[in-house]
Sequence to fold (527 residues):
Amino acid sequence: MMKKLFFFTFLCCSLVMNSQILPSPTQVDVHNGVFALKNNCVISYESTGAQTANYLISQLKRSTGFDFKIKTKSIKKGILFKIADTELNLGKEAYLLEVTPKLITITASSEVGMFYAVQSLLQLFPVEVFSSAKQSIKKWEVTCQIIIDQPKYAFRSFMLDSGRQFQSVEFIKRYLDFMALLKMNVFHWHLTEGQGWRIEIKKYPLLTSVGSNVAKGKEQNGFYTQEDIRDIVAYAKSKHITVIPEIDVPGHSEAALTAYPEYTCFQKAPESVMSFSSHLFCAGNENTYDFLENVLDEICELFPGEYIHLGGDEAPKKDWNRCEKCQNKIVVEGLHNSHDLQLYFSKRLANYLKKKNKKVIFWGDVVYQEGTKLPDNVVVEWWNWRRHKDTALKNAIKRGHQVIAGSNYYSYLNFPVTPWSRYKENRTFDLKTIYEQNPSDLENPNALVLGMSASLWTDWHVQEHMIDRRVFPRIYALTEQMWHVGERLSFDDFYAQVKLKYKLLKILGIDYGPAMKTDVSDDFKWD
Fold:
């Protein structure tokens, strides 16, 4: 959803191309002079800002080695966090950053706005400020300037598939750090798949003792305890990131159904598959709904955010068409066919979560049929551009549902820049393709477009060590589209900005890959 542009009167030109910050701020006005950070610098906040002030100190102290003094009053020298006056009309995530020779002032209406201002401020220092150890930099200086900034969308998501390939808690936290720097605020966590159930459910221990071990490939075993989940959710919260779990049903559920085959149509454990199959949760069995509602009860306790993602994509109906219980349910509920049965299944779970004050996200597959009516707590994630173009986007908006835009051949970062031997098809795109052609990058989005997503799927064994080179640097194009309000740089200018970030990526330990096909060396490997 487009944020309301706040009103602030000052004369400036929009010198975004001179900014060191990605995603690009709304407006930058560069002045003469510098602010020089010194030992014992005072960092002060008023009624709000303690959390972010301490975060900034921790970031600065480890690389500069400086000590800092904290105060809780207005100051004239140092770094000041300030609550915005109401007449500025700053949105929740907006900020004003003013750098003068003696004082850096961060003005925002909330802690999250201050946090994003800090992410921008850190990028204005020498890049060594991101180092994890003290650096021998003689001058820690920031050019004097005024920045006003706010996001285009309220929902800026990164999706990670931990269902097919398990990642460590440390790896997840590392990506939450990267998300914070990129001003992304939603971690969509794909926790269940045909190749693995990754979240501990106390009531159903076989989901993890069996379901997390159904696949035999490297990094395909393991799960997150409820203690792990709480730790990650809390860590994300400290970065102003909401974690949205995805429990994908009725399809992509072979791991769960191997653990509990009584919830299949024919009470037989399915085989683990890389993509998807017709082995679905039996929608005609009332016990299936009891099982899933019990699972969702625990999920809701672990994830306090507003949303739960229930998948709903790629669910072939072969088993349902042969299942006596499913066919009987179609008759009893006055449905027409097995596609209607999936809508019944999805709506029933959405209504259950509505009672728990949760909104439910489904993949766009749920709105392809004409006349589909879904509960008003449903949000649609538009993904399948390849086969259905913008049908899901249009149908969802027509029916009054909010939409998250993440069209697959432009935002699925597991698709590399050049062909990968494990993919049967040539699924590739580069930085320029995203920046100039992404259909999810809507110039004048409908008010129901909640935001955008970037995704990293791990099918065909995309392991931990392969992820960085797929995500970076191309994610910069997607976050620019999620965040930046106003006129964009030309691709050549934007690409120049991205290349300036390569030193930062090295300092952060990111094994970044090529942005363009011409960047790919003969010896480069996606494995």
Summary: The chain has two domains: 16-149, 155-486+494-519. The first strand starts at residue 27 and ends at 37. Residues 16-149 form a domain with the Chitobiase; domain 2 fold (CATH 3.30.379.10). The CA atoms of residues 407 and 439 lie 7 Å apart.
